[in-house]
Amino acid sequence: MNLVMHDNNNPRNPANSMTPSPDLDIDIRGAVAVIRLNRPAKRNALSDALVLAVRDAFENLPATVRAAVLGGSGEHFCAGLDLSELKERDAGAGLHHSRMWHAALERVQYGPVPVVAALHGAVVGGGLELAAACHIRVADDTAFYALPEGSRGIFVGGGGAVRIPRLIGAARMTDMMLTGRVYNAEEGERAGFAQYRVPAGQAFDKALALAQRVAENAPLTNYALVHALPRIAEQPADQGFLTEALMAAIAQSAPEAKARVRAFLEGRADKVKKASET
Ligand code: 1HE
Predict the structure, then answer these.
(1) pTM for this structure?
(2) Is 37 in the pocket of ligand 1 (CB under 6 A)?
(3) Options 1.10.12.10, 3.10.450.50, 2.30.40.10, 3.30.530.20; which CATH number does 219-277 get?
(4) Which residue ranges are recorded for the region named Disordered (predicted)?
């Protein structure tokens, strides 16, 4: 049993609603939840059970958690859909299977906290769809990105058709699926898959450091970034401006926001440093 749940105090949801999975490690480290796909022998391929375990993990994070890291054990982040479970499905069953993935990855993207993905090795197919549902992606130099669905005679079904073009553009995604093109870590950073690239073996440490930094933000600011920003980006501009104003008004009214601004004005908070100093 590889499930490690160090903190069962969970006011957000009853702890007993958690579906333990032997293939998912959950380690609560203070304000950061470290969640790891743990099926290295199968390259962390996403069985239905593992997809549901990811959903449950994000649904049941303890209220003390302020950010999460999502990574994979072994040599690869994730080999995508578990192809051994790919059955003959009629159209209705295929629809529901895809919608099950959508519901699970929706809990990652629109869950309670920002999620930093630590990527290495294969980030392919449904693994790339899962990474795209996270808020920050850190990739090490071993990472590579592909959408082999094109060659397997299938299509993306885990939200990739919506999320991946927003990272790299529809033209690049079309090319990847039509031609089987694989992006290496450097090309992937340039294309927009990852916001950070680090030397081999350092993705997890960098992701954890970023998550710890994210966890220090005022909770309402993180809420606005996870829940409001992507929706504002989808709204027509005039509606987006109004949603932005409403969110800004709510965030700045929090006592924590007022205290943070006061701390700066009284010289007790960090100044913004030049990029070369950070
Ligand atoms: C798997 C899977 C998998 C590995 N489902 N079992 N995804 C793909 O098409 C990618 C398929 N996988 C690969 O291309 C390679 O495995 C990797 C590049 C990821 C890794 O290569 P490597 O040499 O390190 O490992 P391997 O020897 O290929 O695999 C080790 C074992 O994992 C082996 O099983 P074994 O019993 O022979 O040891 C593989 O069969 C197994 N394995 N990947 C099942 N994906 C919501 S829709 C999403 C649609 C998709 O994601 S389609 C894309 C699926």
Answers:
(1) 0.93
(2) no
(3) 1.10.12.10
(4) 1-22
